[in-house]
Amino acid sequence: MTELTYLVRKRSDLDETQFLSACERYEAFLRASAIALGIKDICVQQKMNTICQKCFAISRKLEEPAFDAQIKMSWDTMDDYIDGAGSPTGIAAMDALVVEEKKFIDLGKSQAFFLDKEIKRTADNTAESGSQTISS
After folding, report:
1. Using CA atoms, how far apart are residues 120 and 127, in angstroms rounded to an integer?
2. Beta strands 69-75; 120-121: pairing state
3. What is the DSSP letter of 108?
4. Within a 10 A sphere around the Cβ of 118, how many other Cβ atoms?
5. Secondary element (H or E) of residue 70
6. DSSP string, 23-53
7. DSSP of 45-68, one letter per residue?
8. Are 93 and 101 in contact (CB under 8 A)?
9. 3-state SS assignment for residue 11
10. Cα 30 vs. chain centroid, distance in angstroms?
11. What's the pLDDT tens digit per position in 24-81?
């Protein structure tokens, strides 16, 4: 599985309520574009500003997260991403997404990166990858 993780910073001229509303609109817009782009899964999450987060960061001497929201999109393969984004409808969808992003995301302070094949570990140290279960 190929996943695009997009760590976004809100534009400085927006307050938290405006940003949250824009994230919700963007998620709906992204879901409407999913077929054209070949996206299998979408997740949009806003950063939680809690005391737990601050304590966790302090306990490990971490910096404050440099993002306000995380947007994840996944495809079965990188080729699926390339096919979707490179098709005529995909190109139009990508162009429209950038227009939407500029309305609430500070693109110059945001980051995006691709990850390959997420492996999840359960409490009994069993790794799950796709439909296969791998014991270690």
Report:
1. 6
2. unpaired
3. G
4. 13
5. strand 69-75
6. HHHHHHHHHHHHHHHT--EEEEEEPP--HHH
7. EEPP--HHHHHHHHHTTPPPPS-S
8. no
9. coil
10. 11
11. 999 999 999 999 999 999 999 988 777 888 888 899 998 877 899 999 999 999 999 9
State both tokens at 43.
């997740």
- Provide CB contacts within 8 A for 37, sequence distance 6+: 73, 81, 84, 85, 90, 93, 94
43/70 Cα distance (integer angstroms): 8
At 2-27, the pLDDT tens digits run: 999 999 999 999 999 999 999 999 99
- Which pLDDT score is estimated for 53? 81
Assess contact for 127 and 121: CB atoms under 8 A: yes
What pLDDT is recorded for position 23?
Answer: 94
Question: What's the rounded mean pLDDT across residues 117-128?
Answer: 64
Give the 3-state secondary structure of residue 72: strand
